[in-house]
Design brief:
Elements: E1 8-13, H1 21-32, E2 37-42, H2 50-58, E3 69-73, E4 84-89, E5 92-97, H3 103-106, E6 124-127, H4 130-133, H5 143-157, E7 186-189, E8 195-200, E9 209-212, E10 215-218, E11 231-235, E12 240-245, H6 250-254, E13 263-265
Parallel strand pairs: 1-2, 1-3, 3-5
Antiparallel strand pairs: 4-5, 4-6, 7-8, 8-12, 9-10, 9-13, 11-12
Length: 266
């Protein structure tokens, strides 16, 4: 049973805000359905960094009303034969290129997609059929405007049901460069220079320190427990362990980037 569309569409891209691309994509959405609500999830994903975009999309799980349509466009393969996908899972819809961008959202749900399989959330994934929907791309380089935007607007407005978007897909591309969940590595660096790891907050019980970038960083509950300029580790808003610097930039201070490993220590 697919959720009833909420009329909300979120956008995550690597377009930035210097150029008119985001505005043009919003125009494409509003041309198809002027009454939808558009939310900017993020437009500062580093160019072509699919894994970072996947993390950003996954951050929206459970944070929007059921039936929200989440659109991700981080698409270095735009114009090639890579598929364009729509997924129904976690009570929402997810649209983007088949390059791993939806992989973190899908996660273990793909393994549970067979009807009757036990486990957590079940995903249904479909390939967007442009010919069937009458949305042939005008350009080979702007599928956000020509395909993803229009399809999201139609889905959000109820013009098309999810099952009408195209044939089922059983083998969506999954991320390959970020390691397994909980491996103990940096998966995201936010605008404050906080180093977000793949270690769930519940998994740090008993640990008192984190070894990262050649330094031992103590684990605390809040920034206020250390002096300005000091490094600390804490469970952040994503529910994951983060390494931060009170009133500073941990990534710059430690010289650490996404992909670096960490080690919990007692």
């Amino acid at each position: 049973m697919h959720p009833r569309p909420s009329g909300i569409v979120t956008l995550l891209t690597d377009f930035g805000v210097k150029d008119p691309y985001v505005g043009i994509m919003k125009g494409a959405l509003l041309q198809r359905s002027p009454k939808i609500t558009i939310v900017d999830l993020c437009h500062a994903i580093p160019p072509q960094e699919v894994a970072v975009g996947a993390f950003g999309l996954a951050a929206a799980i459970g944070r929007f009303p059921d039936g929200t349509v989440h659109v991700g466009v981080v698409d270095p393969g735009v114009g090639t034969h890579r598929r364009m996908l729509a997924a129904s899972v976690h009570g929402c819809y997810w649209i983007g290129p088949d390059n791993g961008l939806l992989g973190t959202v899908l996660g273990p749900t793909v393994a549970n997609a067979t009807p009757g399989s036990p486990g957590g959330p079940v995903a249904e994934v479909r390939e967007i059929d442009c010919e069937r929907l009458g949305t042939a791309p005008e350009s080979r380089t702007f599928h956000g405007r020509d395909v993803f935007g229009p399809v999201a607007a139609w889905l959000a407005a109820g013009r098309y049901g999810f099952s009408a978007l195209g044939p089922r897909v059983e083998d969506p591309v999954m991320p390959t460069d970020s390691g397994g969940v909980g491996d103990g590595r940096i998966v995201y660096v936010d605008g404050f220079g906080n180093l977000v790891t793949d270690v769930a907050g519940a998994a740090i019980e008993g640990a008192r320190n984190v070894f990262v970038g050649g330094r031992v960083v103590p684990i605390h509950a809040t920034y206020g427990e250390v002096a300005e300029g000091e490094l600390l580790a804490l469970v952040g808003s994503f529910g994951l362990l983060e390494i931060a610097q009170n009133c500073g930039n941990a990534a710059r201070t430690l010289g650490v980037e996404r992909g670096a490993t960490i080690e919990l220590r007692s």
